[in-house]
Design brief:
The protein is α+β, with helices and mostly antiparallel strands. It has one helix and four strands; from the N terminus they run E-H-E-E-E.
Length: 61
């Protein structure tokens, strides 16, 4: 049971996440021979006030 975790800045649409999950699943099936129904993709959306880069919160940039 492969599990892929994706951490993204919040704000993507459901359609964008749907497409991302489909493409990641396709890649796991094609590249490593995973069984499609066993591939789990977890999309973790992080609010900008909880994500920092270069010592600054993204919400402050």
């Amino acid at each position: 049971m492969p599990v892929v975790q994706v951490h993204l800045k919040a704000g993507r649409s459901v359609d964008e996440k749907r497409a991302l999950v489909a493409r990641i699943t396709d890649a796991m099936v094609e590249e490593v021979g995973a069984v499609r129904d066993r591939v789990h993709v977890i999309v973790d959306e992080v609010p900008t006030e909880s994500w920092g880069r270069g010592g600054v919160l993204l919400s402050d940039q």
